[in-house]
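Before relying on records like the one below, remember that each one covers exactly one chain. Contacts with other chains, cofactors or solvent are not represented anywhere in the record.
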Amino acid sequence: MSFKRKDLLGIEELRPEEIYFILNTAKSFRQILDRPIKKVPTLRGKTVANLFFEPSTRTRISFELAAKRLNADVVSFSSSTSSVVKGESLLDTVKNIMAMRVDCFILRHPTPGAPYILAKNLPVSVINAGDGSHEHPTQALLDLYTIREKRGEFKDLQVVIIGDIAHSRVARSDIWALNKLGAKVRVCGPPTLIPPQIEKMGVKVFYSVEEAIRGVDVVMMLRIQKERQNKCFFPSLREYREFFSLNEERLSLAKSGAMVMHPGPVNRGIELPVSLADGERSVILNQVTNGIAVRMAVLYLLLGRR
């Protein structure tokens, strides 16, 4: 098959065969990252604009490196030093940048749905790098790539996602992705951080980490999204750590060799202790490396054959 979409806006809209096509393409690009010269001329002459309206380290740098590895030109945008602070709308800002002959926009925005508005109004490609608490498709794709790299296939794989489910765009995208490929997904967290009726997404809900983690193949921890919370959803970080953090005793309830994942940034000592964040079961840094290959694949599939 071929990937015929103009944009990558979310996992929910992708078919399983499209997800596999992206993962298989990423496998080819992953080999490039281990070469002495980590560049190919695939997107020479193309220009990619990074538009980040929220703080980011891994995603922003990963997209920038991915574009540069493909020999594209990259323009990085900072909202705090742009005309946005003077009242210019998002769409006007982007249209003005596009008039400078930009071929692709990578957008992170605090408003859910912002990338969809751009995609509807622009003839060039738009990639969602995270829209509010809605979706983060490339994070889900790199998570899938990392799981597949270590575990093979997804059918009947048991995965638990623990933490702030309500405010996590990563959780939503991962749930969509894993379910589409045949994995069994559990979610766990304080009742105040579990969205109502999330069972309709095809997950099992747990409020005890010990119960949730028993017999799973993959443990994915999430960061507390303080910046998206307008009220206190639990009494204290100390209490959250006591009931919902991962430790050696809890991890021992998972299957032997279960993977420990985290989309970052990690609040060490809250979601994970140092021993597990840096331990042999952790694939957190593998996720970061694989993110470049996955984003290279996405850029190539959207831009490389035009």
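Residues 57 and 163 are 21 Å apart (CA to CA).
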